[in-house]
């Protein structure tokens, strides 16, 4: 199966190992991976802040770019960016030209764990990692894409990894995009509930499906001098 | 005291976060309500079907609201009620003050009603020289403290037992104690006396049934039963969205509302009021006035996306589930309706001028949508409002930033250049302190993924 990677701007700029791991995992399960050098952002920052015009411009570019691809699917290591692409039809609800194009691209776009489990029907990617770890449900993956069992199934099949459920795993980490800098004190107060739960879990690593949540959680863990590390699901699945 | 403004939401929130009493009270109450709600929802195997059905009933009523309101008004009037229509808060207050004056009301007992909070009815009645007594325990507490409610169904949720004890000692002259039985006992004794002497009772409405002209009010304390039955005159104030078509529809809502609000299978009291007493020997008020309030609701009704805001049954579940509300409580919003649903309906009720921060007071996590018994897509509404607010009320710097952002994100060459520029800038300029005050910042990679590919 041919896959076009949408790496996301955050991973591109701040956490490239998530992108590299995604490619290697996809190749390991038999996919041919392409990467369009012209890609940028999914438009979420503008959409979520209320700048629809700017969001539409960036979304149209995303749609055009991937319409040119002959890949069977667009895969992204982010539940949040994937959810944004799934929201494209809302952006073009009153636009008869762009609505069907937005719908077609939205239907082709998948978050990594969802693509592995639901599309490829792969539950074990042959990864191994030694230690105790837990999972944080990133909100958009969980509530917009309904990803709950998919990442857990993949994690349970990582050899050597002892998985424990996080208390309130489905509670928000407080990131929320521009919310995290518009209201940083509230954002960190919410985050501290998550950090307490992680520390109580007694794990070596907390895994999630979105670089944004991991930056939020990791930024606080590191500020606190915690020994717990953050890891993206793609990085875990690529660990051998 | 404590009447905060939505315009200073950010500052209000910071002050709330520094209040350890408040955060302790909030943590206890929201997690208890949340857990009970989750258990109550899980105990009904058809919970999802009930939510879908409830929303369908609300949609049906809202799609033909004029007709259902007329039907409700006709049936209520046939049973002796008098219907009043108020376009806005001022009109509603004028109607109610006029009625109170005509009946020479001196003492008015009130049961808990967010709609009367919305129109600031107490202020209007007090200005007209009447004494208004809130009879719901939580409302009574905050009335004594001169504070607005901080939660839709638990108005004094922000107060600890100790704070309430101090308040009762100061205001009611009771001996200092934090014994809950003694505290509620004192409130009860004081309020009983007011019920006995009140000239007028004012209540809200949970559901108004078109088919029968019945108003339905649910509660746990019995004070609503007393407010609506002891005084000679009863005035019920309701938003026009409270109407539901049929009596049988109540089955769904009476399952969803208490479970979503407090996790109860049923509230202690359900009052069904259909008109006035029909025979001299019947008990109950001689007059029933029902005030139908618009106050911006027709505007919400007009748009296909905002219309769903009117499906809200005011259970408060979205407040308890909201990570922002859990941390800062209700007062910080500076609006009558706090929390996620408040952030959605307040700008629609009173305009975005003074409320433009509220739709941004959310991480868009979606927990509110999950718990909403009538499936209101609150994140969608927040985004809809943000799209109205940003181009008009966003700062010049923010608007420019997003214009530039769109330019960069639609031009790969510019994008690559700014990625290099970002690396340089990060070295020489301090990155947003808003982030780094509480969290370490991940450094920009020395090579972007674009530069690593192909591999």
Considering the chains and any ligands shown, give keywords for the structure:
heterodimer, A: 240 residues, alpha/beta, four-stranded parallel sheet, 53% helix, globular, B: 455 residues, six-stranded parallel sheet, four-stranded mixed sheet, 52% helix, 11% strand
Short recap of the structure:
The complex is a heterodimer of chains A (240) and B (455). Helices cover 53% and strands 15% of the residues of chain A.
SSE inventory with pairings:
The complex is a heterodimer of chains A (240) and B (455).
Chain A: E1 2-5, H1 9-14, H2 16-28, E2 32-34, H3 44-49, H4 52-67, E3 73-76, H5 79-91, H6 98-108, E4 109-111, H7 112-119, E5 128-136, H8 139-144, H9 149-156, E6 159-164, H10 179-182, H11 184-201, E7 205-208, H12 211-223, E8 229-232, H13 233-237
Parallel strand pairs in A: 1-2, 1-3, 3-4, 5-6, 5-7, 7-8
Chain B: H1 9-17, H2 20-42, H3 47-63, H4 65-78, E1 81-86, H5 89-102, E2 107-110, H6 114-118, H7 121-127, E3 131-134, H8 137-144, H9 161-172, H10 180-197, E4 200-203, E5 207-209, E6 214-219, H11 223-229, E7 233-239, E8 243-244, H12 250-261, E9 269-273, E10 287-293, H13 297-302, H14 317-321, H15 323-328, H16 339-350, H17 367-371, H18 378-393, H19 396-409, H20 412-428, H21 433-436, H22 449-452
Parallel strand pairs in B: 1-10, 2-3, 2-4, 4-7, 5-8, 7-10
Antiparallel strand pairs in B: 5-6, 6-9
Helix pairs in contact in B: 2-12, 3-12, 16-18
């Amino acid at each position: 199966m041919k896959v076009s990677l949408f790496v996301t701007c955050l991973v591109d700029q701040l956490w490239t190992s998530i992108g590299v791991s995604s490619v290697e995992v996809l190749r390991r399960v038999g996919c041919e991976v392409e990467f369009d050098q012209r890609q940028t952002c999914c438009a979420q920052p503008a959409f979520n802040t209320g700048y629809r015009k700017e969001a539409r411009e960036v979304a149209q570019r995303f749609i055009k770019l991937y319409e040119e691809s002959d890949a069977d699917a667009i895969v992204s290591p982010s539940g949040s960016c994937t959810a944004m692409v799934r929201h494209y039809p809302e952006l073009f609800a009153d636009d008869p030209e762009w609505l069907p194009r937005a719908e077609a691209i939205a239907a082709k776009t998948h978050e990594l764990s969802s693509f592995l489990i639901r599309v490829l029907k792969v539950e074990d990617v042959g990864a191994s990692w030694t230690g105790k770890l837990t999972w944080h449900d990133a909100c958009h993956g969980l509530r917009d894409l309904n990803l709950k069992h998919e990442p857990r199934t993949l994690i349970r099949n990582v050899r050597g990894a002892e998985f424990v459920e996080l208390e309130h795993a489905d509670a928000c980490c407080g990131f929320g995009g521009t919310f995290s800098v518009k209201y940083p004190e509230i954002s960190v107060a919410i985050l501290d509930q998550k950090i307490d739960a992680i520390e109580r879990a007694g794990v070596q690593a907390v895994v999630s499906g979105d670089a944004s949540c991991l930056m939020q959680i990791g930024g606080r863990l590191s500020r606190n001098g915690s020994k717990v590390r953050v890891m993206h699901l793609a990085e875990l699945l690529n660990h051998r | 005291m404590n009447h905060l403004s939505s315009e200073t939401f950010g500052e209000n929130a910071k002050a709330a976060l520094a209040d350890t009493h408040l955060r302790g009270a909030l943590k206890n109450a929201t997690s208890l309500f949340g857990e009970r709600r989750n258990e109550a929802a899980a105990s009904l195997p058809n919970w999802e079907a009930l939510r879908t059905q409830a929303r369908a009933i609300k949609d049906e009523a809202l799609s033909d609201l004029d007709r259902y309101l007329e039907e409700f008004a006709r049936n209520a009037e046939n049973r002796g009620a008098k219907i009043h229509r108020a376009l806005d808060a001022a009109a509603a207050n004028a109607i109610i003050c006029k009625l109170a004056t005509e009946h020479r009301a001196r003492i008015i007992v009130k049961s808990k009603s967010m709609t009367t909070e919305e129109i600031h009815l107490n202020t209007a009645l007090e200005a007209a020289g009447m004494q208004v007594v809130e009879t719901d325990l939580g409302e009574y507490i905050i009335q004594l403290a001169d504070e607005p409610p901080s939660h839709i169904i638990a108005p004094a949720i922000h107060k600890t037992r100790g704070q309430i004890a101090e308040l009762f000692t100061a205001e009611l002259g009771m001996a200092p104690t934090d014994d809950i039985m003694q505290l509620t006992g004192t409130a009860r004794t004081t309020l009983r006396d007011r019920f006995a002497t009140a000239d007028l009772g004012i209540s809200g409405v949970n559901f108004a049934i078109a088919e029968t002209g019945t108003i339905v009010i649910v509660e746990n304390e019995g004070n609503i039963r007393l407010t609506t039955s002891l005084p000679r005159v009863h005035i019920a104030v309701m938003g026009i969205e409270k109407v539901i078509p049929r009596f049988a529809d109540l089955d769904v809502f009476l399952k969803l509302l208490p479970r979503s609000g407090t996790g109860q299978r049923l509230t202690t009291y359900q009052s069904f009021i259909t008109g006035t007493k029909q025979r001299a020997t019947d008990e109950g008020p001689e007059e029933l006035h029902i005030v139908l309030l618009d106050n911006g609701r027709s505007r919400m009704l007009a748009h296909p996306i905002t219309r769903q805001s009117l499906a809200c049954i005011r259970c408060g579940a979205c407040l308890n589930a909201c990570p922002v509300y859990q941390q800062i409580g209700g007062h910080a919003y500076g609006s009558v309706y706090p929390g996620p649903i408040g952030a959605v309906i307040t700008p629609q009720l009173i305009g975005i001028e003074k409320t433009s921060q509220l739709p941004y007071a959310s991480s868009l996590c979606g927990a509110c949508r999950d718990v909403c018994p009538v499936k209101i897509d609150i994140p969608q509404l927040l985004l809809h409002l943000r799209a109205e607010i940003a181009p008009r009320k966003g700062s010049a710097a923010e608007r420019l930033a997003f214009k530039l952002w769109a330019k960069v994100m639609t031009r790969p060459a510019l994008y690559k250049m700014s990625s290099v520029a970002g690396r340089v800038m990060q070295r020489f300029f301090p990155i947003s302190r808003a982030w780094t005050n509480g969290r370490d910042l991940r450094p920009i990679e020395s090579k972007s993924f674009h530069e690593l590919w192909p591999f």
